[in-house]
Predict the structure.
Amino acid sequence: MKKVKGFAFRLVGLILGIVGAVVSATAIVFSTVGLLQARRCKHCRMEDEFR
């Protein structure tokens, strides 16, 4: 069986790509949740502080 050159780099690239995709998806979800909570808080006392 022949060893493939650069297999470790491919594996590390794949793992980093998966981690990056998960982190970006998590950031999008948190951003969306934050925007929805900010819309709900239109009548709270802290509204003036955020403007």
The CA atoms of residues 2 and 8 lie 15 Å apart.
